[in-house]
Amino acid sequence: MPHPELRRLPLLLSLLSLLAVCLEMAFADDSRYLLGGTTALVAFSLILRRLQCPRSARLVSLPVLVLLALFVLSFLIPDSWIGYERWAELFDAWLGDGEFYALRPSLLISLTLILLVLPSLLFWRPHLIAPLLCMVAVLFSVTQLFEQLIFDLNEDSGLTPMSGLALALLLLAEAIDLHRQLGRYRRPIRLAKAGALLVVVITLALWHFQNGQNLYQVNHLALVTGDRLSELMGRMLAVQNDAMQRFSKGWQNEPGVPEENDWALRGQLLLQDFPDIAAIGWFDRERRLQRLVNRGSQQPAGMADNPAVKQALQQVFGYGQQGSAGVFDTAGEQRSIGLYFPVDTGDQRPSRGAVAFTLSLSRLFHQLEDRMTDTNDYLVTIHHDRQLLFRTGRDRRLSEDRYCNLITLGGNSFTLCTQPTMARLFAERTTLPALLLLTGLAFALMLYLVMYYHQRLRSKHSGVVNANRRLRNEVEARIALQTEVEWLARHDELTQLPNRRYFMEWTSERLDSRGGAVMLIDIDHFKTVNDQLGHARGDHYLKCVAEVARRPIEACGGLLARYGGEEFVACLPGVEEDEVVLCAERIRREVQLLELEQPHTGEWLTVSIGIDCAVGLFDIGRLIETADRALYRAKQAGRDRVMTR
Ligand SMILES: Nc1nc2c(ncn2[C@@H]2O[C@H](COP(=O)(O)OP(=O)(O)OP(=O)(O)O)[C@@H](O)[C@H]2O)c(=O)[nH]1
């Protein structure tokens, strides 16, 4: 029997759990309200149930169940049916600054809370199903803990140490309560629970595998998106580079400094085609800017007389290679890059001049933004020398995974990184793992009920079988008793011979025209045996004589019975007198040969035998009478002899 103190312990644990979750909500940030609030409501409904207020407990449990069911549905319903925004709208009041997908309790925790609150709503024998629900809830929360601590699933379950403690206290309280209540149901429940839990464990393992696969695929998709953007950016830069190179080569065959008008005309055409190019300049071999065509009114920094420009021109004129003045800020155009292309004359002589381009990176990157279809799902950043050049897309609730690629332009390297939002990652997830988990859970529940009722029926059936066996044993004992009583009614217990009643029945059935004989056997001086050797020895003598007399009589087809006291009677139907006399003589001799002590004579025990025979139909009573008279005569004549009528 459980200790009586255990009655109050679950209530105390539930109160502690409520306290823990309230403390967390009071001191932690808003984002914990979703899980904290739900756990608090579950704890409250369990407290009401333990305070013996089932109706109030049900009133609180029902809305909690609806809320938790909504969480579970958000895992089940594909995003194409109800999207992220819809769910977020639904839970906006709870979320504060948070995002629904990141802050809702995980599937396992939502199910754990449902399993805890469900027994309060079951009208029909909740104690039968509650042990399984409690065990599955424990399994789910332990799995969640492992998922969170061991596997990095890029998913915030919302389970903090404080809310975890609150949940553990609720589960412990439930387990103690169930331990108290189960009583006689414990055995069938234990077996059914073992079977159902096996199914749940297998389902959890499958779910874990599927979920991991799914998350891997989702993350892979984010990686692919990063690669796609980098490729797009690389292509845009390559087109730009090609155009600038072609423009530079276009001046190869023209001597000296380009004509003013020609430069302006061709330069304007290029500016029109490529809006990212802010300015185009011509530097002669003395590294002086001779021609310039630009969008703004001011000369960009890429064309100015500064060390970076000098270094780039040195690259062009000194080594005949493309140079770069690096990234700089230009007024109005923000970030720009200066690129310098040598203009060769075709022979081996050094460059005749250099065409300088000022490329607006801001405009270039905005073109990338225009071509991005899903700016809301990612944060895209471009860095150069650890300097942020460009940033677009969402910057709230981003996944921790970032995918970066390196892109080069005129010897300058840019790092393009994409970071998907949590909403995007969750939208890409399939609902298959959640469906699998719920199907497995439903199957386990059904198996539990089937096994439980099977066990109950089996125990009832074995009860009936036992009762039947007891009844059969009793009937058999009574039949044996009856047979014994019947046997005793017709036999003598001491000598095991038929008694007088059976003898009379037997003979009356066998009286026919064949005739027959009656033999009366009496032990001589039997009283002296009893008196001097004791009744026990007398009984033994009676048994010995009965045994010796029985065999020859039965060999003649007759029946020997105990007639009374130390006297035996035999009927031998259809046997003639000579044969009967021979039989009697044989009995007499064999009794002597037993060598039983006879204290009266000092010799061996003897018997006297009287015989009467009849030819044809006879009267047994009269035959016995005459045999008795013959016996009397045998006694009178000195005993130990056979006398016929
Ligand atoms: N031990 C024992 N003695 C019995 C039983 N039934 C009868 N007796 C005894 O048998 C004796 C019969 O004695 P009696 O009728 O006087 O005859 P007897 O002593 O045999 O003498 P005779 O018949 O004249 O030779 C009595 O003492 C009875 O008590 C029994 O079942 N067991």
From TrEMBL:
One of its GO terms (molecular function) is diguanylate cyclase activity. GO terms for biological process: cell adhesion involved in single-species biofilm formation; negative regulation of bacterial-type flagellum-dependent cell motility. It catalyses: 2 GTP = 3',3'-c-di-GMP + 2 diphosphate. Keywords: Membrane, Transmembrane, Transmembrane helix. Its cofactor is Mg(2+). Residues 514-645 form the GGDEF domain. GO terms for cellular component: plasma membrane. Its EC number is 2.7.7.65. It is an enzyme of class 2 (transferase). The chain crosses the membrane at residues 32-48, 60-82, 102-121, 128-146, 158-179, 191-209, 432-453. PANTHER family: DIGUANYLATE CYCLASE DGCM-RELATED (PTHR45138:SF9), REGULATORY COMPONENTS OF SENSORY TRANSDUCTION SYSTEM (PTHR45138). This is diguanylate cyclase. It comes from Kushneria sinocarnis.
